[in-house]
């Protein structure tokens, strides 16, 4: 197949199926905050970013999804002799922004994704700032704040999110999230279609609430009380929506990864392996 970005260099590893096991293609899609080596391998920059007006917003998530489709089509044909991805069980394992990418992939290429394992997916439809109430909004009542939550703490949390996590902020990788909320406005839809005219197998794993409170404070984010009241509940509700992207009998979760903050694959790889094995046992 023709190369859309022939100057880009990619490094990947391929592990063939062993024995008589039916082959499947399992793809690990990384986030922005942890190096690609948290899974394995590395990648080059998108060559299109070089001439972009704003290099930190050089390409969007749909561009990534289309590049991924080309890569997977090429890998399947060259390494597995399979030229139609709908004939190959495809399982996408994702962390953080990778959660948005795999959802978009399944939407853009319906009928090709057999299983999805979400590991603390990015809050695709959020600007992150609005997770916390706005003390400066007209009519805001300070007495409505929960116990041990102050207006100063709310202001500080919103400022931190604005500076570090708002979609208007670019990334060193050149991936822009500016239009992500428009591409994925709801966590529970649209429903996804797998290769058998039913939904894919979906497992949703979130961070452990207690572990994330500690991690987020150490990152310079909100104090534990604010994470407990706002962030954890917001994220859990989002994950509940992800679990509805398929039929109930093909959905699992949301689960909390014991001892894991946002980077579940780093903090609890045993759980990731277990849940991936569970999906593979259902499809092979």
From TrEMBL:
Pfam families: Abhydrolase_6. It comes from the Eukaryota. Residues 26-273 form the AB hydrolase-1 domain. InterPro entries: AB_hydrolase_1 (IPR000073), AB_hydrolase_fold (IPR029058). This is AB hydrolase-1 domain-containing protein. It comes from Aspergillus caelatus.
